[in-house]
User: Fold this.
Amino acid sequence: MIQGGNGERDSFSSKFGVIAAAAGSAIGLGNIWRFPYVAGENGGGAFLLIYLIFIAAIGIPVMMSEFVIGRSAQLNPVGAFKKIAPGTKWHLIGLLGVVSAFIILAFYTVVAGWTLEYLLQSVKWAILSGKLGFSEMSNEALREFFTNHYEGFIAGIWRPVIWFVVMMAFTGYIVISGVKNGIEKYSKILMPVLFVLLIVLVIRSVTLEGARKGLIFLFKPDFSTIREAPMKIVIEALGQAFFSLSIGMGTLITYGSYIRKKENLASTAINVALADTFIAVVAGLAIFPAVFAFGINPGEGPELVYITLPVIFQNMAGGMLWAFMFFLLLCFAAITSTISVLEVIVAYFSEQLNMTRKRAALMAMISVGFLGILCTVSPDIFGIFNASPDLMLPLGGFFIVVFIGWILARDKTRKELSSEGTHTTGYFPLFNFLVKFVAPLAIALLFALGVYSRMIALFPSLG
Ligand code: PFF
Assistant:
């Protein structure tokens, strides 16, 4: 286990363990809760297409860059930059990542807490479904029932706060248990189960009457939606790509530092990106057909999953038992992500500030706890935190690719990617071109557009 700055460092013990942990970080609420509603708000298919291009041309190069930095330094994001680029200001990028980790962990753990509320409610709904008259209700009525429940729950204070605290405590427990015996162990079990369950849901959703419209919405790009609000769509697609892959804030620098030297970083990154994208698309396939079949508005916003899915479950044999299983797994998917964000802070506190792992985790949890409670009581703060990854992560990602493309010596990067010559790196010229030119230019441009469009939204007179 990692013990402060001087103890022997923990690491992932197998190739599958690395992929499960990194994919565990990547796959989470971002895929199942955020992707469908952001895609829904931005026109569906056209958004998906842009998103896929960003994942391939920007996301994978950033992810590989993070792995290279982490594994070559074997340290947290701040320590890693200090070690590789001593005497420079590059470690501030690591620090920006730690700050992002605080913000993301706060709102993310709040939404993760909602899964626990729904877990409990689904047991109640399963038991009381006869009494509540679910089977006699029309889909309209069911939708209204679940909308009322969602709105009542969010407007309250205590329940969201309690679930947030419980979720934070689970996350802390796993992180304190260490990399191999905590993070890797749980990710290896939880990720495959999530996958199977999602597939079952897709089958139910696409076989509903009226499901076709949802498939068209997701897979047939309608470019008129892009023409209406091009800046908004591209910056949200970029932000979502970064958020979903867990890149741009040093999470994968941290995980990269636990990857053994012999592992192939390029194939790990590609596998993780493929798994992540696949799950986002599958989540879309589970949600949009049902959204259209039940006449729900796909641009509904953050509540999409929490209202739509219970309606689908009630339409399935077994009803609310499915809801229970789904929210259990959504909760697991969220935990494998929250632990990765907490790990960024814990690795930083323990290695740079010389704390024990336990103390580091407790300090982090208390401070994030404070921010999280602010998010539960104020929808405005929640909204700002939830929107922040769209700008913060691309900003961090920009400097990470610039560092790899322009600052770190090319042979060093290649040596790390090839594990000292063990793996072939025929892709290197392409990778180099992407990190040197394509990714930095594209991110800089989109970032500028993103800032501009937010300014216009705030001060319309500028437009
Ligand atoms: N990638 C996670 C998801 O899609 O749910 C969220 C996340 C985890 C974002 C870790 C950033 C991060 F560093």
Remarks:
- The pocket of 4-fluoro-L-phenylalanine is lined by residues 25-26, 28-31, 104, 243-244, 246, 249, 251, 337, 340-341 (CB under 6 Å).
- The longest helix spans residues 91-132.
